Amino acid sequence: MKNIGVLISGGGTNLQALIDKQGSVIKSGKIVCVCSNSAGAYGLERAKKAGIPTKVIRKNADCGGDTDEFNRRVCEYMKSMNVDVIVLAGFLAILGGELLKEYADRIVNIHPSLIPSFCGDGFYGLKVHEAALDYGVKVTGATAHLVNEITDGGRILLQKAVYIEDGDTPETLQRRVMEQAEWIILPQAVEMICAGKV
Ligand code: GAR
Predict the structure, then answer these.
(1) pTM, full prediction
(2) How far is the CA of 66 from the centre of ligand 1 (A)?
């Protein structure tokens, strides 16, 4: 069994999908901690309800705005919890430095588009869906990929397509991409890594 550490920034619906799929889809790993870069993230409540230890590490308030220090602190926490595999589940800060080296090929991210469309710096959360609707694409989706030093540039593990519907808003599209793609492929990708299939 691998130890899974989850990083979040917000609502944590992807974290919830991971919690719910432990034992069924995720058979080779167990969530041992959840770390947020925002103290108000609702995902922290989801973790507490599931009995999972939580930690808040904020770049500005705790690390003086220093990116290297932030990465060092997150890495230190993950190591202290004996984490083998890190999952970015709606984590909206960019990771770098020591953490990427220490956990190379063992960090997975979920991105709410079909990479290489609508990804990279500045494309996160609702902005991704706004960009897809502005462009007028008819199909979007989600991508689970490994994390390296290039934003959304690591090896693709799984993708799932979602159709855009007439009258979609960024909010309705975000919800459908989560339901039909993210909550399905993220747990599958986590299992792939934990089972040594990546
Ligand atoms: C999700 O749609 C996730 O794909 C996206 O943020 C949302 C978080 O929702 N992540 C990114 O845009 C990363 N670049 P959640 O907190 O409910 O899981």
Answers:
(1) 0.97
(2) 23
